[in-house]
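To whoever picks this up:

The nightly regression suite flagged Activator of HSP90 ATPase as changed. Nothing in the input moved, so I suspect the structure step. Input below, exactly as stored in the fixture:
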Amino acid sequence: MTTDLDPDTDLSFTRTLAAPRQLIWECWTQPRHIPHFFIPSPHKVTAVDIDLRVGGRFNTTFEVEGNVMDNRGVYLEVVPGEKLVFTDAYTEGWKPAPEPFMTAILLLSDAPDGGTTYTAIARHRNPETRKSHEAMGFFDGWGTVATQLEAYARGLI
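Regenerated output under the current build:
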C-alpha cells in the first residue's frame, strides 16, 4: 500500500515521540494498552478486540459524553514495528461497512535519542469526508492521542 499523500483526501501529521519504537508498536497492537491513549480524554475506550493480522479485526468501543460508539474495523497491512494500516470500510471477514469513514496508516521509525518518528495518516474516500474530518478536529484529536500515547508509553519504561 502506497503512503503517497493526496491533499484532497488525506490528513496527516508527523511528530517525534520520546519513547522507543517497539514500545509504541506494542501500545498500538496489544489490547490492554489501547484504553490508555486511543481517544482524547476525558472520553473512554471501554472495549478492545484485536486480531493482529491482515484481515483481522480491530474493534473498539468508546464512551463519549454518555454515548456508546462501536467501531468495527479490519487490518489491511501489518509490518511489525513499522506500519499499521486499518480501516472501518470493512469488518472481519471482509464484510463491507455500511458507512465507511477512513483508512488509518501509522508509520513508525527510529528517531534520534531512542525516540520514535510517528506519522499518522487518515485517508478518506472523497474530499468532502476529508474536510468533515478536519472540521471535526483531526489535528487536535489525533494530536491529543499522540501526546497521550507518548505519556503512557514513557510511564511503561
